[in-house]
Amino acid sequence: MHELFATERAAAAHPVLLTAAADLAVPVSPITDRAAAGLSETVTPQGIVAVCTVVDRPLETVLAAARLVVVLVDVSEPGNAGTVIRVADAAGADAVLLAGDTVDPHNGKSVRSAAGSIFHIPLARTRDVPAALTALRAAGLRTFAASGYATTSLEALRFTTPVAWLFGNEAHGLPVDVLAAADESVRIPLYGKAESLNLATAAAVCVYTTAMATHR
User: What PANTHER family does the record tag this protein with (predicted)?
Assistant: First the structure.
């Protein structure tokens, strides 16, 4: 953290945060409610805003010794990206990789949807999707591409090796070349009448299925 801004109301409500900032020699600046509204992106700001260093790391460092990695390819909705980061954190994944044209994880909506998880799980970003797939293989990870049209069902998988799950754009799914490059395309079985699952739900099912199998 580089600097903290707080309204009088927020300072009174969160004295521990301000004390912690002072202990770390982080400047704390008082602001008005109007200024807090201008600095934040929410309808009802909490009145406290921090300026922080971005949290993403080099791809090579986050894949070292990884056994479960979540990869988002061309995901455009920040709320989805943040929710998947939160899911990956909760499931004990080792890293989240945001590839291609995926939204910036530091986007305000993404940060709020992650609910603190961006500070818990290593994140990496790269525009080069083929390079990301190469790095995953080099790290010893088997790549599973989530696709509603795949012939292999999630029920049939056995998780005996380190895994990287690939999830695509909300509207279009994963690009054809990414599906072809993955070790396996996998679909989630639908037992009811719904035609599909949204991205965050699909990611939660796949990632948690892997995590639970590994922990068993």
Answer: RRNA METHYLTRANSFERASE 3, RRNA METHYLTRANSFERASE 3, MITOCHONDRIAL
